[in-house]
Design a protein that fits this description.
Blueprint (H helix, E strand, L loop, with lengths): L7 E7 L2 E8 L2 E5 L1 E4 L11 H7 L4 E3 L1 H6 L3 H6 L3 H4 L6 E3 L3 H6 L4 E3 L4 E4 L6 E4 L1 H11 L3 E3 L10 H21 L6 E6 L5 H12 L5 E4 L8 H12 L8 E3 L5 H9 L4 E4 L1 H7 L2 E4 L2 E4 L19 H5 L2 H9 L3 H27 L3 H11 L9
Parallel strand pairs: 4-14, 5-6, 6-10, 10-11, 11-12, 12-13, 13-14
Antiparallel strand pairs: 1-2, 2-3, 7-8, 8-9, 15-16
Helix pairs in contact: 6-7, 7-8, 8-9, 10-14, 10-15, 11-14, 13-14, 14-15
Length: 375
């Protein structure tokens, strides 16, 4: 019997773009939706109350990091991730696959799973599809991920092998899952090879997952390769289930992803940029460390309603950065997260009003990636 918690209702479409509602035990997700990343059960420099004020509705945490510290058993003892980090809204955990496979020099892959060395203390550990699901069930997020292998996009000979391993692991994850209050998403792999991506999308969608993730992108491929891959995959994935583009969060990528039928995004980018003094504006990123902003009385973005923009100017923010005050990271993170959350919300409204194509075109023409003003 289908779990009504995880039904996906599409409320409006415009070509491939969709506005929908994904029902979870901790509330409805209005899609498209952007999830800030709380790697270690915290979105860096931002409190849960601030996230709520921003309007965030979904947070992602990381299985690999929480497994190593403080441990899934401890999180479960504390009532699961929602209670542990005091976030009462929907949550998503990744499988740990991307982090494990990024440890290229310290891990060994076989057909059963992966043995790897902790980046914290060098101790040895092992993940299998079954153990990844077990850890995620203890963490208790609403949406969990199948354990997959994210292969090096530059190693064409290996991509097909890793894709087939990902497929076998997806089947094992389905068999291992026991909690009915969690939605397990399968992950499509295959690099930027259109034939492999097509094969992967067809296989993963045949397994009956309540949602699907698209992995292995934003890892060094060109923007055109990313867009072409999304076109191939989303033409195959079921239209009545949510599509999640993993680890993608630059503003132009969100808009281009929504144009191609993506519903869910996550990325560390807004908080990572904030810790390096960079802020989003409607025309591109700015570096608030630049001396040109020392006497600037304007907010980061005149059109932004976030706490940082409503209360502080660029000159003050630059002072905090130069003085190495922690508040700089908090204020710029608040702004950057709200910029992305607002962007997808405005995209959703534009889809509902059948004007998203023009909205997207106007945004993409105005926004210049990595724009540096005042350098």
């Amino acid at each position: 019997m289908e779990n009504t918690n995880f039904l996906f209702d599409i409320t409006a479409t415009e070509k491939n773009a969709r506005a929908g509602v994904f029902h979870t035990p901790h509330g409805d997700l209005l899609t498209p939706v952007f999830a800030p990343v709380g790697t270690q059960a915290t979105v860096k420099a931002v409190t849960p109350a601030q996230l709520e004020e921003i309007g965030a509705s979904l947070v992602l945490s990381n299985t690999y990091h929480l497994y190593l510290r403080p441990g899934a058993d401890l999180v479960a003892e504390m009532g699961g991730l929602h209670e542990f980090m005091r976030w009462p809204h929907p949550m998503l955990t990744d499988s740990g696959g991307f982090q494990v496979f990024s440890l290229a020099d310290t891990r060994k892959v076989d057909e059963d799973g992966v043995t790897f060395k902790s980046h914290i203390d060098g101790s040895m550990h092992r993940f299998t599809p079954e153990s990844s699901i077990g850890i995620q069930e203890k963490l208790g997020a609403d949406i969990i991920m199948a354990f997959d292998e994210c292969a090096d996009p530059n190693n064409a000979a290996y991509i097909q092998q890793s894709m087939r391993r990902t497929h076998a692991w997806a089947e094992r994850c389905l068999k291992a899952k026991t909690r009915p209050d969690q939605a397990l998403f399968g992950i499509v792999q295959g690099g930027v090879d259109s034939d492999l991506r097509r094969q992967s999308a067809e296989f993963i969608s045949s397994l009956g997952f309540p949602g699907h993730a698209i992995g292995g992108l934003s890892v060094g491929e060109t923007k055109k390769e990313m867009h072409d891959t999304l076109d191939v995959v989303n033409a195959i994935l079921p239209t009545n289930k949510p599509r999640y583009l993993m680890g993608v969060g630059s503003p132009e990528d969100l808009v281009n992803g929504i144009l191609r039928g993506v519903d869910i995004f996550d990325c560390v980018l807004p908080t990572r940029l904030a810790r390096h003094s960079a802020a989003f504006t409607p025309t591109g990123r700015i570096n608030l460390m630049n001396a040109a902003y020392a006497h600037d009385h304007s907010p980061i973005d005149e059109t932004c309603s976030c706490y940082a923009c409503q209360n502080f100017n660029r000159g003050y923010l630059r002072h905090l950065i130069v003085a190495k005050e922690i508040l700089a990271s908090t204020l710029i993170s608040i702004h950057n997260i709200q910029f992305l959350v607002s962007l997808v919300k405005r995209s959703r409204q534009a889809i509902i009003e059948s004007r998203f194509e023009s909205f997207a075109q106007e945004f993409l023409e105005s926004y210049q990636p990595r724009r540096k003003r005042g350098d």
